[in-house]
Write a structure and sequence with these properties.
By secondary structure, this protein is α/β, with parallel strands linked by helices. Helix content is about 30%, strand content about 20%. Helix 1 packs across helix 4. The mean pLDDT is about 95.
């Protein structure tokens, strides 16, 4: 009998206010769908379970408009301090509410990253694993954090750096997995970025 398939939890960070864009990115529409819905679908289709979404800015509106059924919704009251607080909130919820061996972290404003890239990174899920997608040799998302690392990431994630410093400190232990062939890593910061995504 083959061992059971390891499936990481999917952790979507969707709490930012989108200051440069002009509204929270979770509420941006692309192709008729909210970015938060597209990202949750990518996580689920890529093999992640359970799904956790961290909300902050305009959380009530996001909850009223988005398709969040089946996802664990975490409210980050400190979203204005940066992405690090959402990462901490999401990992803390996963620690308390699930027995997941790893968390695959995706940002709501990267609609060019879909199920194929998620699945490629998700395949590395182990409690001790750290893995990142790379694009032209540069680290990007998704990022996989094994459960063994969550306490230290929760302690160290600050501002908008998220787990960046933690990944840097564990350089040789990080699996770097090319995803250039299956994803476009660009993020949506301003409306012009969205128009670029619409043409991809």
């Amino acid at each position: 009998m083959s061992p059971p398939e390891r499936r990481p939890a999917g952790l979507l960070l969707a709490g930012g206010g989108g200051r440069r864009y002009g509204k929270p990115k979770a509420l941006i529409e692309l192709g008729g769908s909210l970015l938060v819905d597209r990202a949750l679908h990518a996580l689920a289709a890529g093999g992640c379970t359970p799904l956790v979404v961290v909300l902050g800015a305009a959380a009530e509106e996001v909850m009223s408009r988005a398709q969040l059924a089946g996802a664990i919704v975490v409210h980050n009251a400190h979203w204005q301090s940066g992405m690090g607080s959402s990462l901490r909130a999401g990992l803390t919820a996963l620690q308390r509410q699930t027995d997941a061996e790893a968390a695959l972290v995706l940002l709501v404003d990267t609609p060019g990253i879909g199920a194929a890239a998620v699945g490629r990174i998700a395949a590395t899920a182990r409690p001790a694993a750290i893995a990142v997608a790379t694009y032209s040799g540069r680290q990007g998302h998704p990022v996989l954090l094994g459960r063994d690392h969550w306490p230290d990431v929760i302690r160290s994630a600050t501002g908008d750096a998220g787990a960046r410093d933690y990944l840097r400190a564990h350089g040789q232990g990080v699996q770097r997995i090319p995803c250039d062939d299956v994803a476009e890593p660009g993020d949506v910061d301003v409306p012009e970025d969205l128009r670029t995504q619409e043409t991809i």
